[in-house]
């Protein structure tokens, strides 16, 4: 499934995977759910398959996404939670009718109602955001060190010192930038050494 949607950054936490559907927020932002169908695709790979999505529901989803981003950023920086973000997250949480069901194999699945699949899916995402912002899960909210990203991510590393939202993108880019900077420094050193 992941290879079908290489442009989605799917992490281990639903709420921050969702906020990662808008990347490079502090640079040239990339919208990864530009159409209702793309949201349907993202929900499918995130265990929240819905049959359809309207443009109004896409707007609702993006509004929730930005509210989660705002609340998670505030939590990561120990700032007060923005009241509007809290209201939106709570509205989405209470307005869904998703049910957790247990499979015979012992896995959790979300059962969404056919009539309001997207709203139900958003309620699951909102509840996930509430659990991490409220500090109920083992981990710590942090902001990506990349200046063009600054995405909020959930650090579950033992030392809680993870710096990047995503190792394959932000982490890798930073590593490359550092390598090039070092190379230049060495070249300069070599040149000045010649004189
Ligand atoms: Zn990042």
Give a nutshell description of this structure.
It comes from Actinomadura algeriensis. The chain has 195 residues and is mainly alpha-helical.
Secondary structure elements and pairings:
Layout: H1 14-19, E1 22-23, E2 30-31, H2 36-45, H3 55-76, H4 83-94, E3 99-102, E4 108-111, H5 117-133, E5 140-143, E6 152-155, H6 167-194
Antiparallel strand pairs: 1-2, 3-4, 5-6
Helix pairs in contact: 3-4, 3-5, 4-5
Zinc ion binds next to loops.
Pfam family, one: zf-CGNR
Protein name: RNA-binding Zn ribbon-like protein
Domain Zinc finger CGNR: 141-181
Spell out the key features of this protein:
mainly alpha; single chain; binds zinc ion; Jann2411-like fold; 10% strand
Structure overview:
The structure is a single chain. This protein is 49% helix and 10% strand. By secondary structure, the protein is mainly alpha-helical. It has helices at 14-19, 36-45, 55-76, 83-94, 117-133, 167-194; strands spanning 22-23, 30-31, 99-102, 108-111, 140-143, 152-155. Strand 1 and strand 2 form a beta hairpin. It starts with 13 loop residues before the first helix and ends with a helix. Strands 1-2 form a two-stranded antiparallel sheet. It has a two-stranded antiparallel ribbon with strand order 3-4. The protein has a two-stranded antiparallel ribbon with strand order 5-6. It is elongated. Residues 144, 146, 149, 151, 164-166, 170 line the site of zinc ion (ZN).
